[in-house]
Amino acid sequence: MAEQQKLRLGVNIDHVATVRNARGGQYPDPLRAAKIAEKAGADGITAHLREDRRHISDVDIEGLMDVLSVPLNFEMAATDEMQKIALRHLPHAVCIVPEKREERTTEGGLEVAREENKLAHFIAPLRDAGCRVSIFIAADQRQIEAASRIGAEVIELHTGAYCDAYAEGRFKEAQEELRRLQEMATMAHGMGLEVHAGHGLTYDTVSPVAAFPEVRELNIGHFLIGEAIFLGLEPAITEMRRLMDEARS
């Protein structure tokens, strides 16, 4: 069992850029959101530069590298273009995620076991350059073992199935997904991997995951940006931080 440590919160600012891009122009500014998130207690900022640039832009990444005083977690697909961008900016961490043009958001985890050799070669230059490499995967033993073999230092467990089941009132299924997440977090930690988690987490679903002692970081975005419409961004993040700390203690 992992010892209890302060749980880090990574705030994903992608959907501030989604709102900006709906009208074009410059507002709302994702960089301003990132600085507010820092003030509210975020331990890092996550941004996903998609192939189609539907939200975060190349200029946003450049700006984040300039203004942040907390680490940037750069989410990206395993493509040559994204590898070059990551190697140019050298963010603190890169998280390799699956990406399909037609999806609204990242659906499921990366298929590491099937692409093991390709991914091992892909992440090697990133690791050599000093970036911490994270792999976004489902809570599945095969994928975790493959992530370890290719040299990833971190895995991020996809919490979407748990959150969706909870939101749709399928509470028995939600508990089963939660149990699977706990088992896989424990296994990954025992293998020497740092364990993160995220996708779809809300005020209602965050506490059980935050209580897992093996999990070191949660990455949360869409829900917080939605709540910011009603509460403001700083209060929305402050409340998430409070729930995480309460669950941890």
**Total beta strand runs:** 8
Strand order of the largest sheet: 1-2-3-4-5-6-7-8
Largest sheet descriptor: 8 strands, parallel, barrel
Q: What is the CATH homologous superfamily assignment?
A: Aldolase class I
How far do the termini sit from each other?
15 Å
Contiguous uncertain segments of 5+ residues? 101-106
Radius of gyration: 17 Å
Total of helices? 11
Count of discrete domains: 1
Account of the 3D structure:
The chain is 49% helix and 16% strand. The chain is α/β, with parallel strands linked by helices. It has a single domain, classed as Aldolase class I (TIM Barrel). The chain has an eight-stranded parallel β-barrel, surrounded by eight helices. β4 (93-96), α5 and β5 form a beta-alpha-beta unit. α2 packs parallel to α3, α2 (30-40) crosses α11 (233-248) and α10 crosses α11 (233-248). The two termini are 15 Å apart. 43% of the residues are buried.
